[in-house]
Amino acid sequence: MAASIGIHVGGTTACLALEKDGKIDVIANDLGDRTTPAVVAFSENEKVVGLAAKQGQFRNAANTISGATNLLGKSYSDLIVEAERKESQVTIAEQDSCPVYQVEWKNKEMTVSPEEVISMILLKLKETAEHQGGCTVKEVVLTLPVDATTDFEKSLRSAAEEAGFDVLRCISEHAAGALAYDLGQTSPKQTSHVLIFKLGGRSLSVSVLHIQGGVYQTLATQVHTNVNGNLITNQLVKVTAEDFKRQWKADLTENKRAVAKLRNACENCKHILSRLNSSHLSVDSLYDGIDFDNNISRAKFEAVANSTLQQCAGYAEEVVKTCQLDPKDICQVVLMGGSASIPKLQQLLKDRFPTANILNSIPPEEVAAIGAAKEASIILSCHDEGISLNEEDVNMPALSQDIIVKVCDESGTEQVFTVIQRGAYLPVKRHQTFRISSEAQSVSVLISASSPTDGAQPLGKVVLRNLEEADIENGHISTTFHFKRDGSLDVTCTADGSGKQETLMIEGS
Amino acid sequence: MTDVYLPPSLDDDQTEVYRSIPASLVIKVEPVGRWFEARFKRQHHRTSGSFRDSGQDGGDDSESMSEEEDNIEDEDDSHLQGLDPSEWKSQDHYAVLGLGKLRYKATDDEVKKAYKRKVLKHHPDKKKARGEQVGEDEHKFFTCITRAYEILGVVTKRRAFDSVDPLFNDDVPEVDDDAKENFYEVFTEVFDRNERWSRKKPVPKLGFENSTWDEVDNFYEFWYDFDSWREFSYLDEEEKEKGESREERKWIEKQNKIARQKRKKEEVIRIRALVDNAHACDPRIKKFREEEKKRKADEKKAKQEAIKALALEKEREKLAAEEAARLAKQKEEDEAKAKALAAKKEKEAQKKAKKKVKKLLRDTCKSHDYYAENEEQKIKHMQEVEMLCEQLSLTRLSALNEQLQKSSEEAAKVVFQNEIKSVNEEIEKEKQEELRKQRDAQAAKEGGGSGGVGGRGKEWNDSDTKLLIKAVNLFPAGTVQRYEVIANYINSHSTSGITRNAKDVINKTKTLQRLDTSMKEEVNKKAFDKFEQSKHKPKKEDVSAPSERFANGEEKPWTADEQKRLEQALKTFPAQTPERWDKIAEAVPNRTKKECMKRYKDLVTMIKAKKAAQEQVAKSKKP
């Protein structure tokens, strides 16, 4: 059986999860890391992908490409490209109005498109997966950033195809996150609101999902690039650089290489501090031949990153507010992105969403890939033949108003019973059994549509007359509400005892 | 069940519709998750299988009904009810599952679905739940259903059953007029029927009247090579599992195998017969054959004609060439004849003229008394006149005549004598020329003989020549491959850096032997001078400073007697003798111990060199 895989390529790291025989696991790369830095370096005579490239970054900065996803599917004139061009150490040039990297490889100038960079990363992941999984991997589900454009998706697809994959579908990271925790998948009856909080290396994205009938609807999404994991690392670098200055009376911030070295160490340190209370930071020959050795406690780190983390949590709250929801309405918070594993951040979120369940059982940086792998397995099990998703497929018709039935309780006081809730996706079919009182000769089922703004509006009525002894004995009437795709409603009432049946069809407008 | 009661209806209540339902919303959802996928699939199916009643669109219940179920006939299976599961081998399992129409075309999925349907319908528990009576027959039939699925649900078993499908028509049409006339009607159906056994897909079709030769050829090639998966394990008489012991099972297996092989063989023969018959009846084959025959005949004819034309052409060419040659020859002959004639004429004319001139000269001479003063001179002059007549050309003779006649007596005499003198000189010159030529030829001959001594730049300098003489003496005539050895010796001892081969050496030796003794003498003299020089110097130094060290360098030469004594001493005192060299020195008078040792060493090196040179040659001769 072929395995299905999900791949998440982010701004800083890429991760591959493989679903095989019902088990989903993240594939560790050749170095045993479960995530691979999304960095490609062009060294003198080879192309290096992953950690090796990242570690060589301070040596070969001009030929080491990272964050290619930022440029994917963007035109050269894009503001983001402009910003990236200023920041990146690699020359970014224009080619056919698309941004391309200019690198030196084998002593020759060459241009590499972001697509090719992504393709190389994907190929690397594929090789590892085939090696580890012991089977050919082809079908893949890719994740998209929440703010991805169609051009981005197209480029990503072609990059994946270039790497030898069969792209089943591209799904949003946040949806993948929710799917990774199987939210709403087991009990489709429930409806709930979920906050997806992804703090990646390059940006923070937060969104609120509405889950109904096992289907996810994104209510609001916000992307903030001013807070991100790299920022936290940079803050840590700044603090440690000051420590260094104090200790050795030498300023290393002018030396790019030293900063890069320190940055690598600080990043590791940050990862460790998410798990342990203190971390050792040591860099050999950091600056001027001085070996730097320092101990950073989690408290210190939290003090450094506090403002940023507070900001992140603030954004999360803001998104919920834009959906006109109360923080109490959020049932679950899904943590995604490497920086989301910072305990302090989790604590802050817990404080803001006290009723919510913070989901962090899966390492946050792997959540997206696992969700994608899950989706891949679902797609493969559902569709034998090729499928292509259309625009209309993701636009599902849903009920605009509650469908209610007028009933009485035992005492005879009238009540309203909601049969189908607003927002239910069509078509939908509900069976409902109502009791009938012993003395009743006939019953009526009054069906109304109700919305919070307009109030109840009666739609129709089904009347069952001349009920027989057997019906009374049986004591209940079963009704079927079938809302069809075209918006019409079929109501069938059956008196089980005598088999008497009455149907009503209400046209949709 | 809920605890809500429906309100009783009022008297005037009716089932009615008040208004239509408000428009539904459209919500953009994330395309992920099981539920989305389920809906998506349903929608997908709905659009493809549009014939389906939309009323069947279930909400959240599973929908498995789809178009392929139309293939499963809901026929009355009452006639199957009486089947006995113990006779499963003879039963039609497709019919049992309700796939009687589809048979081998049913996909695995369809088989599975049909089975599930039948199970739902016929399972005793289900029937009981529905309140139907469950008799013994029901149980039996259900067993038949499970048995059918056991066979059709497994690929190998299904193949085995398909192979012996009772509804399959094994008939092969005979070769007769009917088959020939209605070839396509008869055979297309049969081939279509049989193609299902093919392991290779797709199977080429029989085709039509106007199929190309390639198509037809391909078709027959395929069918003659037909690779069938049909196998007959289903008809095995006994089941292997029934065997009680290993040997018995083995025996059963063997029997089955034989039976299967036999049937397989029959099958192969059947297919072969079918193809043979088709081939025999195929009007296209006949057509193609005729066409081929015609084509070949045409080709042959064309070829023959071409050959004929070619031969004719050749004949004509040959004749033309012969004619031309003949004409040319004739012309040539004519020309030659004319030329010869002209030449002869001219020659005769010249001869006549010469005769005339000669006569004139003689006459002139005679008239002038041969310009002689006395009788003796006269005779000499007469002889010389004759010689002049012989030697001088016509023009010169006539010129001489003219001069003689024109000038006076005295002048004529001078002219005559001058003429004679010049003629004599010419003759002399010619003679000398002749002589010189002869000598040159001789010299060239000799030069060739002495080879590339000078030509190849292998000049022999003094030391080499000396070395050569020494080597020649060292290796006397009779040594094996003497000159190779000598050449080697010279090469290894020469300081000139020129490598010489045996041929060079032979040439040089021969020249040396043949050459005037002057060279030899010169060489010897030089050698002697050198010797003298070397001889004198030490003598002088001996006188001034009689030191052993200097004596070492240039010792006095060994005489034959001393040499003999030394050799004898060496033999008498073998290597192990204590104080050997003292004793040897004693045995050789006039010689010190050191001198003896030196001589011995020299001898040894000389012998060694000699041996080495010989060995090297031997080695190079037979590698």
From TrEMBL, chain A:
UniProt keyword list: ATP-binding, Chaperone, Cytoplasm, Nucleotide-binding, Stress response
Major localization class: cytoplasm
Protein localization: Cytoplasm, Cytosol
GO molecular-function terms, A-Z: ATP binding; ATP-dependent protein folding chaperone
One cellular-component annotation, GO: cytosol
Family from the record: Belongs to the heat shock protein 70 family.
UniProt-recorded name of the protein: Heat shock 70 kDa protein 14
From TrEMBL, chain B:
Residue ranges occupied by any Myb-like domain in the UniProt entry: 557-604
Localization in the cell: Cytoplasm, Cytosol
SMART domains: DnaJ, SANT
The UniProt record lists the keyword Cytoplasm: yes
Residue ranges of domain HTH myb-type in the record: 557-608
InterPro entries per UniProt: DnaJ_domain, Homeodomain-like_sf, J_dom_sf, Myb_dom, RAC_head, RAC_head_sf, SANT/Myb, SANT_dom
Biased composition (Gly residues): 446-455
Compositional bias per record (Acidic residues), positions renumbered to this chain: 58-77
Superkingdom of the organism of origin: Eukaryota
Record-level GO BP terms: 'de novo' cotranslational protein folding; chromatin organization; regulation of translational fidelity
Region (Disordered): 41-86, 431-459, 531-561
Occurrences of domain J (ranges): 92-165
One Pfam family linked to the record: RAC_head
Biased composition (Basic and acidic residues): 431-443, 531-543, 551-561
Coiled-coil portions: 289-363
Keywords recorded for this protein, A-Z: Activator, Chaperone, Chromatin regulator, Coiled coil, Cytoplasm, Nucleus, Repeat
Protein name, as recorded: DnaJ homolog subfamily C member 2
GO cellular component terms attached to this protein's record: cytosol
CDD domains cross-referenced by the UniProt entry: DnaJ, SANT
Ranges for domain SANT: 553-608
GO molecular function: Hsp70 protein binding; ribosome binding
